[in-house]
């Protein structure tokens, strides 16, 4: 056979006699050639005996006798003998096989090589699928060759089908109709049993009842913890700081309350301890997992190495404070009992609270709201601590012992908190302290209240002032302009239009001049912002189609946004043109005619006009038509000086722009005004649209 290797130096292997260690009598070979002439209806057993002999050891000139498929005398003993084939015959078969398998891929060739030599359970399984094999040649060798060729062709066909199925799965992975390829030819020949059909249907029924988890659960399961964390942009780190801040606030607010008020009792002590140790676990995870993974900057480079990040954290003052905050003073519980004051070191993790404030303000669009809430919480915490001290003093002197102390009636925390509010805000109406200790405590309360509330009010003013700084600037500009117009006795209609411009500009943009915000940024950042905001509009302008992309980027940095009111003249015919306009939002109309009110064309968002005067084609730079704003119009303005500085570096784009402007000018020279004929007017409008939709 073609795939049976030859070994010239080895003697023939004969299995005619039973070898040591081989106890299966089915592996047997007959040396008598006469025994091979049995009937063609004999069948092979499941464990055939194989005789492999060297076909090339005798040299090229000696022709060896070809073994035939032998049928043993014993009906229970079935033997398969692999016939020896001459070298020339084997080479011809190899060539035929390579020709048949020429169209297969490399993967199919490897798999075919592995499965080229197979033993079938019986001869009947080979002959049962093909009716043409009933009449075979009389020679046993030719019968074996015919059967082998048929099986090889079947293998090739199966490999082709499997390749096609694999391609279909790659194209449409959701297709569930494609079954997996069979492992061997016998599985295809065997009929499907009822048990096998039930096994195949059972996974399908399970798949039909499969419940898909929600998206957030799948995202949580697929999340992999990063090896390094960017503390400025990673939202997961901000979320973790939120949990650390919650644990810190638990200790800050409840440690003094549990120390002063009798809310910690033997019946609920285990719940308090469970919450305390859960907060300690959050502290430990922050020290062991998150903080050693924070990126830092060293000599201008961002460091990602785990070892360097861990060493950098251990050198900081924050690491020392975090370690001290976890000092296990709770060991003194065994001697003093469960005293909440022993957890006072947990308050030293205050740096995580301040970091959370900074990170949260950086990602909020209205950070001033959070600043107001945080400032209010500072005031409430001062009152909370004063209420705890007042109850402790009342319990020390005895509840209800004097008129000044808490009498023990009602909700203890609410009544003490009410006393703290009246004391720190200095409302008055408090009972007079009677003892020296009460007088000293009340004096301290008054002084603390004055300083605390003055600081809180000043900080609240700064927060509110920063939140409304833009609106304050807008109001100041508008007031100064109105005052100026009133001093020069400007007509009322002009004053009203100026006020309308201020109001619409502020409502639409939230600012009066966008350039003031970007002037402090580097040039690269200004370009990135300009591209994100304005590139989609400018790239759609037909005038700039085909221009250099970098030229458009440079032009975006020079654009200015201006708002025009309804009826405002953007430009007038005959005036010297120094700007080019791109419509960002709204509409403008090209008007003219004898009365100056005939609308020639209406330009919408993305249209450009004014480039003829700006590019000064043929030496002329005067406007060729009137353009009026139809409603509120927001336009981009590009100055002639800025455009000339840009086009110096892009000569090809300059030639293209001048060519398009020249085409527009020829159209207007051919049709200076809109013709009365509808056909000519339509032709003029189509020509204008081809070169820029109303370029003037």
From TrEMBL:
Q: Which residues form the Cyclic nucleotide-binding domain?
A: 543-647
Q: Which reaction does it catalyse?
A: Na(+)(in) = Na(+)(out); K(+)(in) = K(+)(out)
Presence of keyword Protein biosynthesis: no
Q: What is the organism lineage in this UniProt record?
A: Eukaryota, Metazoa, Chordata, Craniata, Vertebrata
Query: Which molecular function terms from Gene Ontology are attached?
Result: cGMP binding; intracellularly cAMP-activated cation channel activity; intracellularly cGMP-activated cation channel activity; protein-containing complex binding
Low complexity: compositionally biased ranges: 35-45
Region spans: Disordered: 24-145, 166-206, 661-696
Listed A to Z, the keywords are:
cGMP, cGMP-binding, Ion channel, Ion transport, Ligand-gated ion channel, Membrane, Nucleotide-binding, Sensory transduction, Transmembrane, Transmembrane helix, Transport, Vision
Q: Which organism is it from?
A: Oncorhynchus mykiss
Q: What is this protein called?
A: Cyclic nucleotide gated channel subunit beta 1b
The way it spans or sits in the membrane comes to: Multi-pass membrane protein
User: Residue spans with biased composition (Basic and acidic residues)?
Assistant: 93-105
Acidic residues bias (residue ranges)? 173-189
């Amino acid at each position: 056979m073609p795939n049976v290797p030859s070994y010239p130096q080895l003697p023939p292997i004969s299995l005619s006699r039973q070898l040591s260690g081989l106890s299966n009598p089915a592996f047997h070979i007959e040396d008598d050639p006469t025994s091979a002439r049995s009937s063609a209806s004999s069948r092979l057993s499941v464990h055939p005996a194989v005789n492999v002999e060297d076909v090339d050891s005798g040299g090229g000139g000696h022709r060896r006798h070809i073994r035939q498929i032998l049928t043993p005398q014993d009906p229970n003993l079935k033997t398969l003998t692999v016939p020896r084939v001459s070298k020339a015959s084997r080479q011809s078969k190899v060539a035929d096989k390579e020709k048949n398998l020429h169209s297969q891929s490399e993967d199919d060739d490897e798999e075919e090589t592995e499965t080229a030599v197979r033993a079938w359970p019986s001869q009947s399984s080979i002959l049962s699928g093909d009716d043409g094999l009933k009449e075979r040649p009389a020679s046993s060798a030719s019968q074996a060759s015919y059967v082998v060729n048929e099986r090889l062709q079947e293998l090739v066909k199966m490999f082709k089908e499997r390749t096609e199925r694999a391609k279909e799965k790659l194209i449409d992975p959701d297709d569930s109709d494609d079954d997996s390829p069979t492992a061997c030819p016998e599985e295809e020949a065997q009929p499907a049993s009822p048990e096998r059909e039930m096994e195949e249907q059972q996974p399908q029924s399970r798949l039909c009842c499969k419940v898909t988890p929600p998206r957030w659960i799948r995202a949580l399961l697929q999340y992999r913890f990063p090896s390094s964390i960017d503390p400025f942009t990673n939202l997961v780190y901000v979320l973790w700081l939120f949990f650390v801040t919650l644990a810190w606030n638990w200790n800050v607010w409840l440690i003094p309350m549990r120390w002063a008020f009798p809310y910690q009792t033997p019946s609920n002590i285990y719940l308090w301890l469970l919450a305390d140790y859960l907060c300690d676990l959050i502290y430990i995870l922050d020290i062991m997992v998150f903080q050693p993974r924070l990126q830092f900057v060293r000599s201008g480079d961002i460091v990602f190495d785990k070892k360097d990040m861990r060493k950098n954290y251990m050198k900081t003052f924050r690491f020392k404070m975090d370690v001290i905050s976890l000092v296990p003073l709770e060991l003194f519980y065994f001697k003093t009992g469960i005293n909440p004051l022993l957890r006072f070191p947990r308050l030293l993790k205050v740096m995580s609270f301040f970091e959370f404030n900074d990170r949260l303000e950086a990602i909020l669009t209205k950070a001033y709201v959070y600043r107001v809430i945080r400032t209010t919480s500072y005031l409430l915490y001062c009152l909370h601590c004063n209420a705890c001290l007042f109850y402790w003093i009342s319990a020390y002197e005895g509840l209800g012992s004097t008129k000044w102390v808490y009498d023990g009636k009602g909700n203890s925390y609410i009544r003490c908190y009410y006393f703290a509010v009246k004391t720190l805000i200095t409302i008055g109406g408090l009972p007079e302290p009677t003892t020296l200790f009460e007088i000293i405590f009340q004096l301290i309360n008054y002084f603390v209240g004055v300083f605390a509330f003055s600081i809180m009010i000043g900080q609240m003013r700064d927060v509110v002032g920063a939140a409304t700084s833009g609106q304050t600037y807008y109001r100041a500009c508008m007031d100064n302009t109105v005052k100026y117009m009133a001093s020069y006795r400007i007509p009322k209609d002009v004053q009203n239009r100026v006020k309308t411009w201020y109001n619409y500009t502020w409502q639409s943009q939230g600012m009066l001049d966008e350039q003031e915000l970007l002037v402090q940024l580097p040039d690269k950042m200004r370009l990135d912002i300009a591209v994100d905001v304005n590139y989609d509009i400018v790239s759609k302008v037909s005038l700039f189609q085909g221009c250099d992309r970098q030229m458009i980027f440079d032009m975006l940095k020079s654009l200015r946004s201006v708002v025009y009111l309804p009826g405002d003249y953007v430009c007038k015919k005959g005036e010297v043109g120094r700007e080019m306009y791109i419509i960002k939002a709204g509409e403008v109309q090209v008007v003219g005619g004898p009365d100056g009110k005939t609308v020639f064309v209406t330009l919408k968002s993305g249209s450009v006009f004014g480039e003829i005067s700006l590019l000064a084609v043929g030496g002329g730079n005067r406007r060729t038509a009137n353009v009026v704003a139809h409603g509120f119009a927001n336009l981009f303005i590009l100055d002639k000086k800025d455009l000339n500085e840009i086009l110096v570096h892009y000569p090809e784009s300059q030639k293209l722009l001048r060519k398009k402007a020249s085409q527009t000018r020829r159209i207007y020279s051919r049709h200076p005004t809109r013709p009365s004929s509808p056909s000519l007017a339509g032709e003029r409008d189509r020509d204008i649209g081809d070169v820029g939709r109303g370029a003037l």
